[in-house]
Amino acid sequence: MIDLVEIEYVQINNNKEYELIIRKVLKQCFEVEKIDRSSLYVNIILTTPDVIRKYNKKYRNIDMETDVLSFPMFEREELISFDTNVQEVLGDIVISVDRVEKQAKEYGHTFERELSYMVVHGFYHLMGYDHIEEQDKKHMREKEEYILDSINITR
């Protein structure tokens, strides 16, 4: 069985605690979405506000810092017929660790809760979900909360 995640650190130090949180959340995401037996994996980049701002400007033409960016490699329809014999990246999730820390304090919950939310939120973007329309946002939030509740990461 392949590893579900590859974690990169860009301009921040490696952190085993972050990795444990990320692996726990992604394992649950993969199981719930029934892709845990596939050869898909997620690439996660943990970085600084400056670096995520550069990604946002380069790839989305938005010159501002954000908390999380997702870059899917497939359309949702392609995932249904995915060849499980070929190892492929589901996509990239870029997370600003500084923003995770700030938002955890702002929302009054733990760093673990906020990082977990960023991971599951990014994962569902990779799976083709979005939150532009209110109905889609509601559906995506329900999926995110289900994952977090199922591994006892609550507000």
Strand content: 15-25%
What is the general shape?
globular
- Order of neighbouring strands in the sheet with most strands: 1-2-4-3
Order of helices and strands: EHEHEHEHHH
- Low-pLDDT segments, ≥5 res: none
Task: Walk me through the structure.
The protein is an alpha/beta fold. The chain has one domain (5-150): Metalloproteases ("zincins"), catalytic domain (Collagenase (Catalytic Domain)), CATH 3.40.390. Helix content is 50%, strand content 17%. The protein has six helices and four strands; from the N terminus they run βαβαβαβααα. The chain has helices at 16-32, 49-60, 76-80, 97-107, 111-126, 134-150, and strands at 5-9, 40-47, 68-72, 88-96. Strands 1-2-4-3 form a four-stranded mixed beta sheet, with helices on both faces. β1, α1 (16-32) and β2 (40-47) form a beta-alpha-beta unit. The longest helix has 17 residues, at 16-32. The protein is globular. 28% of the residues are buried. The mean pLDDT is 92.
What's this, in brief?
This protein is of the alpha/beta class and 155 residues long. It has six helices and four strands, in the order βαβαβαβααα. α1 links the parallel β1 (5-9) and β2 (40-47).
